[in-house]
Design goal:
The protein is α/β, with parallel strands linked by helices. It folds into 2 domains: about 5-220, P-loop containing nucleotide triphosphate hydrolases (Rossmann fold, 3-Layer(aba) Sandwich); about 230-325, no CATH class. The chain has 13 helices and 12 strands. The strands form 2 sheets. It has an 8-stranded mixed beta sheet with strand order 6-7-8-3-9-10-12-11, sandwiched between helices.
Length: about 325
């Protein structure tokens, strides 16, 4: 595989009445061509802000404070909005979580689908119209010809989300950023959409960043998993390792909180406490107030990213304990 996206030491801040607040704290990761990286974590962990930073779509009070984002060796962090507009919808596409706010309510579905095709692919209106019909059919929308003349409010939430997915895939992007794209869909359509993304990934070598809180989806589509907490990457590994040998207590907590549908008597486990706010100053490891395995060092010093293996990293002081030959506190708990 060849490197498609490379993010180094990314910091994203917000200007607020309380001052400059960090939302993404010095994170680094990469995505290869044909690879799916799933970003997981609770609400407020920085998943969506990371995605919006890559897309250049941060809100007015948000800005990249440091680091770099390279897409196919092209630095995105220094680009003007006009330059980003040439990339978005073309080499770089995003599926948003809420289609009603992402689709233009006063333009027909057909107009919004044709636009990227005519701008980026130089198609005629007739060619773009036919391509739009094929795209809607591909994402499982019945009577696609009829849907082209309709407006977003005339479609159900699930239908609107499928239109968003069709728009994002229209120009066969190099990188697809999907922010909780199947949340509003029933399980049958969700499976269809995941299959479609995987199919296109194989066909055109598209890289995928998939933001989700659904560990079932992660197990189905991820090649690698990046676990985020309070704006930081706390663990990263291939999907099998994350599920079978998680090293960070937060990752273990996420996995433990997934209900077991085969055991209806099992009590649902939760991670006690809540995610810290952007302006909450926490010394040491930011997870330690909620961590059942917290040690004294966790409260005093921020942990580095320990190398578990060459492809597995965990930002937890337990790794220092584990690497000193003592029992693994997570796997033996």
């Amino acid at each position: 595989m060849s490197r498609l996206l490379n993010v180094e030491n990314l910091e994203t801040n917000f200007r607020t009445a309380d001052g400059e607040l960090p939302a993404v704290r010095d994170i680094s990761f990469s995505v290869d061509k044909g690879e799916t990286l799933c970003i997981v974590g609770e609400s407020g962990s920085g998943k969506s802000i990371t995605s919006l930073s890559i897309m250049g779509l941060l809100p007015p009070n948000g800005y990249i404070n440091g680091g770099s984002i390279y897409l196919e060796n092209e630095n995105l962090t220094g680009k003007q909005e006009e330059e980003m507009e040439q990339l978005r919808g073309n080499k770089l596409s995003m599926i948003f979580q809420e289609p009603m706010t992402a689709l233009n309510p006063v333009l027909t579905i057909g107009y919004q689908l044709r636009e990227p095709l005519t701008i980026h692919k130089n198609m005629s209106k007739k060619e773009a119209n036919q391509a739009s019909i094929e795209l809607l059919d591909k994402v499982g929308i019945p009577n696609p010809n009829e849907k082209l003349t309709q407006y977003p409010h005339e479609l159900s939430g699930g239908m609107r989300q499928r239109v968003m997915i069709a728009m994002a895939l229209a120009c066969e992007p190099s990188l697809l950023v999907a922010d909780e794209p199947t949340t509003a869909l029933d399980v049958t359509i969700q499976a269809q959409i995941l299959d479609l993304i995987n199919e296109l990934k194989s066909e055109i070598g598209m890289g995928v960043i998939f933001v989700t809180h659904d560990m079932g989806v992660v197990a189905e589509i991820a090649d690698r998993v990046m676990v985020m907490y309070a704006g930081e990457v706390v663990e990263m590994a291939d999907v099998e390792t994350i599920f079978e040998q998680p090293q960070h207590p937060y990752t273990q907590g996420l996995l433990d909180s997934v209900p077991d549908v085969d055991d209806m008597t099992q009590e649902l486990k939760v991670i006690k406490g809540s995610m810290p706010g952007l302006n909450d100053e926490i010394g040491g490891c930011r997870f330690h107030p909620r961590c059942p395995l917290a040690m004294e060092v966790c409260k005093q010093k921020e942990p580095p990213a320990f190398e578990v293996t060459s492809t597995h990293y965990s930002k937890c002081w337990l790794q220092e304990v584990n690497q000193s030959g003592k029992p693994n506190a997570i796997t033996q708990s």
